[in-house]
Amino acid sequence: MFTGIIAAVGRIESVETLGEGAGVRLTVDAGALDLSDVAPGDSIAIQGACMTAIDIQAPRFRVEVSRESLSLTRGLDRPGEVNLEKAMRLDDRIGGHLVSGHVDGLGTVVSFEPVGESWRLVVRAPAGLARYLAYKGSITVNGVSLTVNRVGDVPDGAEFEINLIPHTVSVTTLGALRPGQQVNLEVDLIARYVERMLPAAATGAKTGR
User: Fold this and answer.
1) Is 110 buried (19+), middle (13-18) or exposed (0-12) by CB count in 10 A?
2) Which residues have C-beta within 8 Å of that of residue 20, sequence separation ≥ 6?
3) Which domains are assigned to the chain?
4) How high does pLDDT run on average in the chain?
5) Whole-prediction pTM value?
6) With a cut of 50, which residues of the chain have pLDDT below it?
7) What is the Cα Rg of the chain in Å?
């Protein structure tokens, strides 16, 4: 589990193909991320996707990304800057919200523009994720825990708006977003459980249970 509070911006230095249809091995420069308490087998979220560290040679670590994970995410198949977060401890502060590191789908940046000292980010989410978006609810974009300021349905999903303060833009990769770019989305974990429980509750009410 993660919190969506980015600990450092690292950089994918190399991408090694493991074989046809077998995925890739990434070498990541962790930047300012402290790897002293990370061992092989530990989890690190890269651009919001939970990955297992297979080798640590600080300040670098390696992970292997399956072909399926590559097809469901963006930003893990080429060199470039990435958001990094180590798995949370049970006694950690949850500055963002509970994040599993399992990308639910891809969103598309509609606009990203300055508004006063802040930035307004508008993302279009696919239809399968639209029902999980709510005003003042939580959403993870490329691993960053964010609050939805506005949400509206569109024919092929929903568009949601986020206000980014300068600090968030400066300490994550979100500042490099451009219209048309795809981003990794993870919806609020609690929203998924609520959706699962509501039909059961309705059925129980009808049967008097």
Assistant:
1) middle
2) none
3) 8-86 (2.40.30.20), 105-196 (2.40.30.20)
4) 93
5) 0.92
6) none
7) 18
pLDDT given for residue 92 in this prediction: 86
| CA-wise closest residue to 74 among 47, 110, 101 | 47
pLDDT on residue 102: 95
| Contact status, residue 140 vs residue 4, Cβ threshold 8 Å | yes
At 10, the amino acid letter reads: G
CA distances in angstroms from 17 to 26, 49, 60, 121, listed in the order given = 9, 19, 18, 34
Token pair listed for 69 = 């994970």
| Tokens 């990435």 found at | 82
Q: Report helix, strand or coil for 153.
A: strand
Which single residue is written with the structure tokens 């640590």? Answer: 56
Number of neighbouring beta carbons within 10 Å of residue 206 = 8
Burial class of residue 151 in the structure, from the number of CB atoms within 10 Å of its CB (0-12 exposed, 13-18 middle, 19+ buried):
middle
